[in-house]
Amino acid sequence: MSDFERPASDEAVEPPTDGGASNGPQDDAVGPVGASPVEPEKRKGREKAKGGGSGSFLRELPVLLLIAFVLAFLLRTFVVQVFYIPSSSMEATLQINDRMVVEKITNHFREPRRGEIWVFEGDEFGAAPEGQNGAQRAVRVVGQFIGLVPASARDFVKRVIGLPGDEILIDEGQVFVNGEPLDEPYVLYDDQSDFGPVTVPEDRLFFLGDNRPNSSDSRRSLGFVPTDHLVGRAAVIIWPVDNGGLLTGTTHEVPDRRETTGEGDGAHGGVGQDAEDAAAAGPEPGARTVAGLPPAH
Asked: Which DSSP state fits 160?
């Protein structure tokens, strides 16, 4: 054996010092602690989602406004509407600047009752504002619904006194319906004037304001009101809070009209043609026309 030859056993490779086999470079698996190759993409996705939130809301905003407009229109047209009171014709029941809720469902199921407060359309109508775009019209409708913007039509609020076929007579301020005197605790301002007798025609109603000296009602310019002009029944005052309260519950039960013949004008049972013509005529010269609602009269 030569001095330079080694034993075969010396050619064996020493095992790794960590006691395990080495299958290749390990540097590829080394990285910062807690890092992940997919996290940068996740961060980009989150940032994109945040950036698209405002854009998504702006895209949905017209749809939301349209839904709000349609709901307000349907509620205002068929269910409920808020009116404000700009005049004194119904004092002291309704004060100037009161907001009241008018429900429109009762009108579809029964006729008004004597003593109830109803809103109805008058003969004069205001023109809708010109030059308004769709958004402005939507705001106006919503404003009308909550009672902040006047309605385009002339709406009136009064108390039902006579139904179709009723005979109405006012003698020194005392109201008689079918010969029966009405107890009217809501009338605080006496009016000693006379009126009638008149008979309410079919499909018509006779209205009076609670503030009798300062109300343009069926005695004057309004005459007999067609039943198809009714808007709704006044239900509750919602503003101001101090004036809040129900407007329902007051009714007058009177007997049916008596069959009368041969009674002259001025009798509680007769029908005076001159008085009936006066009811259909306009207000006397200088008479103050007051009413109530948006824009109430």
From this structure: E
232 in the same domain as 93: yes
Q: Report CA torsion sign: 48, 51, 53, 59.
A: negative
Domain-embedded: residue 273: yes
User: What is the spatial distance between Cα 215 and Cα 90, in angstroms, rounded to a whole number?
Assistant: 8
Query: At which residue do the structure tokens 């229109």 appear?
Result: 73
Q: Could you please report the per-residue DSSP string of 175-243?
A: EEETTEEP--TT--S-----EEEEEPPTTEEEEE-SSGGG--STTTTS-SEEGGGEEEEEEEEEESGGG
17-27: per-residue pLDDT in tens?
Answer: 554 444 544 44
Residue with more model confidence, 32 or 59: 59
Domain tally, the chain: 2
Same domain, 73 and 201: no
Amino acid 259 reads E
- Catalytic residue check, 89: yes
Candidate list 89, 215, 216, 221, residue with the active-site label:
89
**Cβ-proximal residues to 186 (8 Å cutoff; 6+ apart), any chain:** 92, 93, 159, 210, 250
| HSE of 29, CA atoms in CB hemisphere, 13 A | 4
Give 213-267 pLDDT, tens digit per residue: 999 899 988 899 999 999 999 999 999 998 889 998 788 888 877 544 344 444 4
Give the C-alpha separation, 135 to 66, whole Å.
10
> Under 8 Å CB-to-CB from 31, ≥6 apart: which residues?
none
Task: Tell me the pTM.
Answer: 0.60
Options 88, 158, 216, 218, the catalytic residue: 158
What's the confidence (pLDDT) of residue 50?
55
